[in-house]
């Protein structure tokens, strides 16, 4: 049973109107637990659309979106939100950390929102920061961290509630090549250590080649 399965997903913007853009045209993919899959797509090919549908932030026009076997593409908003919060972590190109909170607090807050106790949440935050190689920066606010450190914190935050699926959109895309490489290595090691499924969009073919599989989004399908 894959953690994420898209089956014949269709998605258009301005559907049925002049100017309709058919973005996904029978997109299918599966990502299993413990698997790290690269998503490579030229700009405008529909990478964000695909990640939003996989992340239950948007609905497909047709086709299925299954998270751990449960069909979510046509589920109610309430069910989709619950599944997103419980099962899916997101990392973006820009970190989106809360500027007034420390690295630790940025990882603690989503855990408190999910019902965890503070002591446990803090211990988990520190463990994640250690594993991403920035335990020493735990008490710094985002503005006091380098770009690479900020992205490392963003990875920890995405994993705060132990999701089954990590979706990342150019997670090292705004970093210089050497920093990008190091952050990517840390991310891979952490992901490997947790056994979660990961779908990581990147323009960097060298990083893509280091993942388990590379999927190319072309003409609305994955090849
Ligand atoms: P990518 O992330 O690969 O750059 P997107 O998924 O953002 O691609 O967009 C795919 C295509 O859909 C592009 O041609 C884009 O212009 C179009 N598109 C994206 N969002 C909308 C929207 N809200 N309304 C109309 N067209 C859109
Ligand atoms: P919260 O529990 O903070 O209300 P949500 O359930 O709305 O969060 O969203 C869960 C995840 O989805 C968060 O990591 C958030 O970053 C991401 N997310 C929510 N809305 C969007 C959006 N419109 N575009 C991209 N990511 C989003």
- What is the spatial order of strands in the main beta sheet? 6-7-8-3-9-10
What is the N-to-C order of secondary-structure elements (H for helix, E for strand)?
Answer: EEEHEEHEHHHEHEHEE
Globally, the shape reads: globular
Q: What's the N-to-C terminus distance?
A: 21 Å
Bound molecules: adenosine-5'-diphosphate
Quote the average pLDDT.
96
| Class from helix and strand fractions | alpha/beta
Largest sheet: 6 strands, mixed
Q: Which residue ranges are poorly predicted, with pLDDT under 50 across at least 5 consecutive positions? A: none
Beta percentage is 25-35%
Number of strands: 10
Please tell me about this protein's structure.
With 223 residues, this protein is of the alpha/beta class. The protein contains seven helices and ten strands. The protein has helices at 47-54, 77-87, 103-113, 118-131, 147-158, 177-194, 205-209, and strands at 4-13, 21-31, 36-40, 62-67, 70-71, 88-91, 165-169, 197-201, 213-218, 221-222. Strands 6-7-8-3-9-10 form a six-stranded mixed beta sheet. A four-stranded antiparallel beta sheet has the order 2-1-4-5, covered by helices on one side. α6 (177-194) links the parallel β7 (165-169) and β8 (197-201). The protein is globular, with a radius of gyration of 17 Å. The model has no long low-confidence stretch (mean pLDDT 96). Bound molecules: adenosine-5'-diphosphate (2 copies). One adenosine-5'-diphosphate binds at residues 57, 81, 84-85, 90, 113.
SSE diagram, text form:
Elements: E1 4-13, E2 21-31, E3 36-40, H1 47-54, E4 62-67, E5 70-71, H2 77-87, E6 88-91, H3 103-113, H4 118-131, H5 147-158, E7 165-169, H6 177-194, E8 197-201, H7 205-209, E9 213-218, E10 221-222
Parallel strand pairs: 3-8, 3-9, 6-7, 7-8
Antiparallel strand pairs: 1-2, 1-4, 4-5, 9-10
The protein binds adenosine-5'-diphosphate (2 copies).
One adenosine-5'-diphosphate is lined by residues 13-14, 21, 23, 41, 43-49.
